[in-house]
Amino acid sequence: MKRLIVQVPALAIAAIAVLVALTGFATAGPNATTAAVTPAQARAIAKAEVMRLAPTLSVKSARTATTALTANSPALYAQVTAAGIVTASSRGIVQANVSHPEPGIYCFSGLPQAPKGGLVVVDSNANGGGSGPDLAQVGITTLRRCPAGSGGQAHVATFARDEGGPFLDDPFFVVFWF
Q1: Which of 22, 41, 79, 156 qualifies as a FRET site for 144, CA 20 to 30 Å off?
Q2: What gap in Å lies between CA 44 and CA 27, rounded to an integer?
Q3: Which pLDDT tens digit goes with each residue over 121-139?
Q4: For the chain, where are the E strands, in sequence order?
């Protein structure tokens, strides 16, 4: 029993230490409530820190400020009619880049470089009420249905929603990035 009494103060101190460690403990001086940093002071400190570090900062991947501002935007995009005509709502893709060899197949060639990815969406707001439930896919490869020797870099296929549905001419929006 004597041994248990000797260990009680040590256990009590250890329990208090665990309690303080888990709940946190801080002390402050007498002016702690009036010494808080105001929003204006925080802005001034941040501005001073930015100005101090500014000479060492750079945008290594951009050649100009314009490039830096547009670095995350799509490289090329186009609105293409069901007949394969590139509309004025396009950037970087012109009529010469698109061929339409058969229904529902649109081939892209002559682009500045081979795209790394793409996205296509059927234009459901086209003349005549749109395309209804049709679907579209983009491929970043040459398609055997594209004209031989065209240097095809990408293609879009539009088709009926039904499983195994036929290829159909549908208007679409396409985006390519490099």
Answers
A1: 79
A2: 27
A3: 998 776 555 556 788 899 9
A4: 76-80, 98-102, 105-109, 117-122, 135-139, 152-159, 172-177
